[in-house]
Amino acid sequence: MAMLLILLRAYMVFLIVVILIYILRHLIFSMNRLSGIQYTHYPDIMDSDLPSVTVMVPMHNEEKVARNILDLLSVIDYPQSLFEVIPINDHSTDGTVAILDQYAAKFPYIRPLHRSSGRRGKSAALNEALIRARGDIIILFDADYLPPQGIVRSLAVCFKNPVVGAVMGRVIPENAQTNLLTKLLALERSAGYQVDQQARQNMHLIPQFGGTVGGFRKDIVRELGGFSPDSLTEDTELTFRLLINGWQVLYNNRIECYEEVPEDWDVRGRQIRRWARGHCQVMFRYMGAMLRSAYLSPVTKFDGVLLLFIYLVPLLLMVGIADAVTLFFLDQVRLLDSMFIFLAVAMFNIFGNFAPFYQVGTASFLDGFTDRIRLLPFVLFNFLFNMLYTAHGSFDAIIDILFGRTGLWQKTERFRKS
Amino acid sequence: MTIAKDIMYCHRAYRKLSERIRSRQLFDFFAMSLPFVALIIFLTPTILYFFNAAAQHFLRLSFGNSVGVVNTPYPLFGNLSLIVLMGSYPTPLYCVGLSLVSIIGVVVLMSMRGIARSVSVYVSFVLLITLISSLFFLFTPERFPYNIEGFSDLYIKTELGIWCTIPLILSMSLLMLPSSLAERMGIIALALLYSLIFGLARYVIFLYIIGHYSYVYMAPMFIAFDPPLDTIYIVGIYSIYMSIVSKRYRKDSDIWQCS
């Protein structure tokens, strides 16, 4: 019994230390973004010698949004001789196929790839499209995105830096005003990009390639063997594969693109569960290689550990709550144990990017979200919701690794009205 | 038609605070947090005396003269005043009934869809703790380690921890803002005052429920409604203040600079 008590208390101390590390990490990020030296000079690059670009748009039953993105890509400001669009129809059973063929007939640089056999999923689809792509730079958009006219040029020009392997832009919800969930997700996105990604860029840590509103060098990814077909977060995987091999991932806060965020709690739940599962898969696969990489500094490696570990934290917190309940019934609750729940709720209220409330506040302050910022307390109600789904995803990843199970790609449902 | 602007504001991608504000951040953190922490430690016996006297007053309206206050020593904070009241154990039948209600509640809530999902997960959590508690009292009631005084001790110590943490967390959160030190200290004082009043109200309600409806509700109240609810009002006060500050400084070219 004494041993059990020691273990229960030791686990609580471990969790408090983990929480304090993340509190400090995100405080440093917030301070850096608000008043540190900002690494934002890439938008100033002007060059007429542009690389050839292939824009890829993976689509699975995207008839609600396909026309919007293709319309916008058809008026993109980029030399036509250096530009092509490959919308990837990945086993669609709705009107997506017809829409793509219609646009292909009208615009010669739109060259759809229809996939009706082989493995379904974003990674497999991108691998097949990589073989057909003519551009040196691959730029990705999810089908619900609304790329502005100059975005391809802004992304492509960042590759003028020869050490840059991938570039990521900023994602902004276009349906933020729809309901409480979308407003909360807009706060989350703001914290994740305006503060988190930019601070990591400023501090030469690990800005993440997000798999959309971003691009990468085709040859490098081909050399690295393409995307793992069983990966559920091919973007996080690519980030770490590039870094481990000495390439930089660049975040450009000025390259903004609008997206559609989930309007339904269940859709959101499934989305973060997939993220957690995929992220933890990447952690299991690349943690060792990242720590051994000769290209990364010790500080960057430490941030990499925190970044890879982050989706496992909710599972640990869940065990921590069970621990706190056990200690309560054993009359072993000490100040630290009751403070654990308080600190956990305060610090891990947003699980998409794990921003504590002061990071969301800082981002909203910078973005000028003067009214939306008042919704912050509602974010806390999501703590258990997010923890449940994220922990489920992390648990899935552990089962995957133990039993060699592979996950099936699940497309996020769209809500756009015609 | 003129297209000229008097002031060109920086795009949000490049916006950052001016150097002037950054230089005083470390000083601000200590200046905002330490006086409050020192004050709480110094005034704890007095605060708790009034806290418990008020709780005793309200509880006596329902429980009469059976409500008492005892003092117990606590390192650093001096004496802790605690409420003493006769509590009761739930009957086995009550535990079975409560277990069934909790299970049904969890099943119904987890099948709900739509906007209520995040709320239903939270309520399910409360019901789950209630289920664990009722099963505990059904099978091993003699092992339950608390009485009202024990719960009072746990609650007061948790409140003390939270009162000391509020100045630290809020100082950390507010230290990056361009508003005056006095104003930000006012926000911390407001959060502490709210915490005292809300903490007292919650204390009375908890003790009333436990005193009237048995110890079985002690675990869900402490685990699900104590520390988690404290974060709500702290963040609530922070968010309202941030909204005000955001509006005030949105177009103040003195505090912003382009990176």
Count of domain modules of chain B: 2
Give start-end ranges of low-pLDDT stretches of chain A.
Answer: none
What is the string of helix and strand elements of chain A?
A: HEHEHEHEHEHEHHEHHHHHH
Total of DSSP H or I helical runs spanning 4+ residues of chain B: 8
| Helical percentage of chain A | 40-55%
Would you identify the regions of chain B where 5 or more consecutive residues have pLDDT less than 50? none
Helix percentage range of chain B? 55-70%
The order of strands across the largest sheet of chain A is 3-2-1-4-6-5-7
Percent of sequence in beta strands of chain A: 5-15%
Mean pLDDT of chain B: 89
- Strand fraction of chain B equals 5-15%
List the helices and strands and how they pair.
The complex is a heterodimer of chains A (418) and B (259).
Chain A: H1 2-35, E1 53-59, H2 66-73, E2 83-90, H3 96-106, E3 113-115, H4 122-132, E4 137-140, H5 151-157, E5 164-173, H6 180-202, E6 214-217, H7 218-223, H8 234-244, E7 248-259, H9 265-292, H10 298-309, H11 313-329, H12 335-347, H13 357-367, H14 376-403
Parallel strand pairs in A: 1-2, 1-4, 2-3, 5-7
Antiparallel strand pairs in A: 4-6, 5-6
Chain B: E1 15-17, H1 19-22, H2 25-63, E2 68-74, E3 78-84, H3 92-110, H4 117-139, H5 148-174, H6 181-213, H7 218-225, H8 227-249, E4 256-258
Antiparallel strand pairs in B: 1-4, 2-3
Helix pairs in contact in B: 2-5, 2-6, 3-4, 4-7, 5-6, 5-8, 6-8, 7-8
